[in-house]
Amino acid sequence: MRAARSHASTVQSAFKSDLVRAFSSTRTLGDEKSINVVSFNTSGKREQETLAVPAAGNEPVTPPGQDIEVAAQPLKHELFDKLSPTMQKFTLFGKVAAITGGGRGLGYNMAQALSEVGVKGIAIFDVQQELGEKSAQHLSAQTGVDVRFYKVDVRDKAAIQQAVQDVATHYGRIDILINAAGIADSNVKAETYPENMFRRLLDINITGTFLVAQAVGQQMIKAQNGGSIINIASMSGSIVNYPQEQSCYNASKAAVIQLTKSLAAEWARHNIRVNSISPGYMDTALNRVPALDAQKRIWMDNTPQKRLGAVDDLNNLAVYLASPGSSYMTGNNCLIDGGYTLW
Length: 343
Ligand SMILES: NC(=O)c1ccc[n+]([C@@H]2O[C@H](COP(=O)([O-])OP(=O)(O)OC[C@H]3O[C@@H](n4cnc5c(N)ncnc54)[C@H](O)[C@@H]3O)[C@@H](O)[C@H]2O)c1
Hints:
This protein is α/β, with parallel strands linked by helices and 343 residues long.
């Protein structure tokens, strides 16, 4: 049996479509001592190994079900004068944000957070039409903020250029970009990694991040109002996850971090700040399935805070990075991982 250890697992549950390997519990929920890891190589051959699960109580790691929907609440402008100067710097009255991958998950939660600090408009860019429309409608209804959905695949340069132009025309400005669209392949061995999968992931995670930043950057430079770009990288851009193989995802996120620094240096003269957020293992709705409970115990056991990140745990940092409160901060990669990368 191979012992479970630090950097034990992955985000594959949030990206099921790319999952090649599956973890399955060998015991009943709450009593796992070990889990079987079954993988299928590209020839379809089945391979199996066993991982030891750290001791835990009987309680499930997370209750099954969806994220608890917390309604966003708008910030009333009349409150602005009552805020202290420091608090005023955290507000974004009159600003407009675009958020890729804003249809759900971390992107949607950060959209909610921006809607609570005064933005006048939010453009959700996502490849999923129905999901994106629903999210935009939902957030508008909750807050009265003008939230619009744009169907954009971040690999499609023409669609990106068109959407960014439409945002600038409709709202009259674009001040904030959050690049949250991304996918993951995991449990794919480097020696057999299919070229088409490798290229696809890089196309979405790194080229997509660049193309959207470029289109929005061009608008910001033209408008001469400066701006803030926030790229969602991952702790996988700084460490190698263990035991699963995910070389392409890790490389893509390291590239996002270095792209962030490069753009920050180039565009500082245009008063555009560029920073990245690197989340650790996040407890998103998609991985709230009992079959993953044992795996989550390994993730948590290797996290000093002994929990996964909540889906809204990036929100306040996103607000800070978007706001004048962080005006001297650029080119930074901010880890939010409950301390996972410390060990
Ligand atoms: N969930 C985690 O544990 C975790 C950890 C570290 C980093 N991240 C990163 O955070 C970001 C968001 O992750 P999430 O957990 O919210 O994922 P998610 O799958 O819930 O949401 C991603 C969103 O991006 C959209 N998207 C995917 N491909 C796209 C494309 N080609 N064009 C436009 N939109 C596209 C999806 O439709 C979806 O709405 C990703 O970049 C991911 O790599 C997530």
